[in-house]
């Protein structure tokens, strides 16, 4: 937990000017995707399509287009970070908007095969502000292809994940 707090605070101080408003919150994650091992076979995790569920802590600033998250999911345990740049942000009115983003991701599987991965992200989402713009609700879908290496694996050392689609929904409280 100390590590997660240190990562979030580092991201916060790296992009937030002193006069900026800061949004911090939590989100639920649903991950659906596939692995391409070094072999030519195409299989979803354990040979079947099944989503992974997880959660994340997020931080954003009204003075920076970057949104950071630290993700955790189980079965197997996995920890990761994402940094998304909201390069298009269009409001429907004062409190509802849609956005497009690009970003990067990195993570590690903490049990089993113990793998490391990194990838690019692109996606879209919507958000709405409530309670005088102190509460933000949002949902976003990303395409997050990645490559990685298994550090403890009998068969394949490297993997490619071209079809990986994280769906995030959550809230941020703005201070």
Describe what this molecule looks like in 3D.
The chain is mainly β and 175 residues long. Helix content is 8%, strand content 62%. It contains one helix and eleven strands; from the N terminus they run αβββββββββββ. The chain is elongated.
Distance from first to last alpha carbon: 22 Å
Query: What general form does the structure show?
Result: elongated
List how many beta strands DSSP finds.
11
Described by its quaternary structure, the protein is single chain
Count the DSSP helices.
1
Q: What share of residues is helical? A: under 10%
Largest sheet: 11 strands, antiparallel
* Helix/sheet category: mainly beta
Secondary structure elements and pairings:
Elements: H1 2-15, E1 22-37, E2 43-44, E3 52-61, E4 66-73, E5 78-91, E6 96-109, E7 115-130, E8 135-143, E9 146-150, E10 158-161, E11 164-174
Antiparallel strand pairs: 1-2, 1-3, 1-10, 1-11, 3-4, 4-5, 5-6, 6-7, 7-8, 7-9, 8-11, 9-10
């Amino acid at each position: 937990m100390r590590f997660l707090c240190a990562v979030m605070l580092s991201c916060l101080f790296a992009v937030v000017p002193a006069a900026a408003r800061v949004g911090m919150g939590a989100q639920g994650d649903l991950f659906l995707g596939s692995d391409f091992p070094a072999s030519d076979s195409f299989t979803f995790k354990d040979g079947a399509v099944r989503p992974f569920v997880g959660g994340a802590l997020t931080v954003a600033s009204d003075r920076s287009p970057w949104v950071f998250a630290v993700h955790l999911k189980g079965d197997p345990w996995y920890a990761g970070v994402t940094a998304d740049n909201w390069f298009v942000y269009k409001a429907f009115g004062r409190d509802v908007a849609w956005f497009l983003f690009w970003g990067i991701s990195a993570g590690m599987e903490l049990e089993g095969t113990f793998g490391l991965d990194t990838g690019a992200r692109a996606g879209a989402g919507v958000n709405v502000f409530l309670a005088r713009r102190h509460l933000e609700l949002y949902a976003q879908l990303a395409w997050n292809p990645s490559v990685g290496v298994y550090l403890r694996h009998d068969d394949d050392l490297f993997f490619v994940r071209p079809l990986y689609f994280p769906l995030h929904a959550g809230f941020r409280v703005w201070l």
